[in-house]
Specification:
globular; mainly alpha; 446 residues
Length: 446
């Protein structure tokens, strides 16, 4: 254990508006960049970055590249967590935002398979790994900025602001793709127009540069939290935060990973798999709902409004009733929801299915902004919360779209087994919550 250079005895306070904006704007940009790729993984990349022939193989290949980012996220969590626990939250958040923004911008400049052959998907994987590496350090830093600066009794509410970046990023990314699709209409509902595929798809990626500049401007105005400053003052900064958190908080690492599992699986089934299922023709090899891209994205955006609203509602609920109690009820509801997929979809209640899924997403995702940081002491909090959050991304998000397509195939076009998969992951999260403890009253400056 060693100490960095001495800090002032009292850290200047961040105004509430600056804390909330810095945590919200940064994660909105990060999730915008992530969703831009997720949308393109369904809409564009199977046509442009892989050999033509089998549409299902191309889609699975695109999802495999999508999942590659999740594999890079724990590495990002370790790297940025080390930086955040050693040097502070501010410099780390700036570095993560820059990494994500540059990678996303460069994707908008990549050559296609028709231009350079297999070099195209290789470069796409490299940029996708960089995205995953960056978001591995983004979330935990934003959550710490919110929770370490929160007033007593309002940590979960403050912690929902970085979480709110997910629905806002989704609406911005898909709204921009939808606008471009309207300007460049296609005669084939299952395929974008030639103009869209030639250059229109690049616009959302290049636009990321504008958003990153705004985010950097806000984040550079932050000062360190009193929790981190006290850690520096008392000489408790860890030389190797990763080794320390594994040695002293191994149980919390495992529990935190499984706390997030159902959230991640639901998250990517509702945002990525659902877009494939909703757009697939009813008479295709993998039959789906047969909606046009424009129609289904509008329906998804309508569902994501509930995602955002219930993310904000979940914070005061978790502050009042506790994180664990709230999440046990919500996770049980996710179990039931997974078993209702076929009745809802066969009954034509597609919009209700989207609203229920995204409502549960908001309710389960919101409290995580406080719960995971509260599991760990200040001197390893960035590393510990980041590892739990991002290792769960491998177990959940990295494989969820791929497993979902396989189960969709297994069900001959029925999503029944996909719903069962969601319910099974919710059972694992429910058990982890039963084994965990309530964190509402922990001392965040410990």
């Amino acid at each position: 254990m060693s100490s960095t250079s001495a800090a002032p005895s009292a850290a200047p306070a961040n105004p509430r508006s600056r804390v909330l904006m810095a945590s919200l704007v940064g994660t909105t940009i990060e999730f915008y960049d992530f969703y831009v790729y997720a949308t393109a993984a369904v809409l564009v990349f199977p046509h442009l970055f892989f050999p033509e022939g089998n549409d299902t193989v191309a889609l699975l290949s695109s999802f495999a590249v999508f999942g590659a980012a999740m594999v890079a996220r724990p590495a990002g969590a370790i790297f940025f967590g080390h930086l955040g626990d050693r040097s502070g939250r501010k410099v780390t958040l700036v570095a993560a935002l820059l990494t994500m923004g540059i990678a996303t911008f460069l994707i908008g400049l990549l050559p296609t398979y028709a231009m350079v052959g297999w070099l195209a998907p290789f470069l796409l994987v490299v940029m996708r790994l960089a995205q995953g590496f960056a978001i591995g350090g983004e979330w935990s830093g934003a959550a710490l900025v919110a929770t370490e600066n929160a007033p007593q009794g309002k940590r979960a509410w403050y912690g929902t602001f970085p979480q709110l970046g997910a629905p806002l990023g989704f609406i911005l990314a898909n709204g921009l793709f939808l606008l471009i699709a309207v300007i460049m209409p296609s005669d084939d509902p299952s395929r974008p127009s030639d103009t869209f595929l030639e250059w229109g798809w690049r616009i959302p990626f290049l636009f990321s540069a504008v958003m990153v500049i705004i985010g950097l401007y806000i984040r550079l105005k932050l000062v360190e939290s009193s929790a981190f400053s006290k850690t520096v003052e008392t000489g408790k900064v860890q030389r190797l935060p990763l080794a320390s958190v594994v040695r002293s908080n191994g149980r919390e690492l495992v529990l935190g990973t499984f706390f997030m599992l159902a959230t991640y699986v639901l998250f990517y089934l509702m945002t990525t798999f659902s877009l494939s299922y909703g757009r697939a023709p009813q008479d295709a090899e993998l039959s789906g709902l047969g909606y046009s891209y424009n129609t289904f994205v509008l329906m998804m955006i309508g569902g994501v409004v509930f995602f955002g609203a219930f993310t904000m509602i979940s914070g005061p609920m978790a502050d009042r009733f506790g994180r664990r109690r709230s999440l046990l009820v919500i996770t049980a509801a996710i179990m039931v929801f997974g078993l209702l997929w076929v009745p809802l979809l066969d009954g034509g209640l597609v919009m209700l299915w989207l609203i229920l899924g995204f409502t549960l997403m908001g309710l389960t995702f919101g409290p995580m902004g406080a719960l995971l940081p509260e599991l760990f002491p200040t001197n390893v909090r960035y590393t510990g919360s980041g590892i739990s959050y991002n290792v769960s991304s491998i177990l959940g998000a990295a494989v969820a779209p791929f497993i979902a397509v396989w189960l969709w195939t297994l069900g001959d076009g029925s999503p029944f087994w996909v719903g069962v998969y969601l319910s099974s992951m919710a059972v694992l999260t429910f058990v982890a919550l039963l084994l965990g403890k309530e964190t509402r009253e922990v001392d965040i400056e410990h």
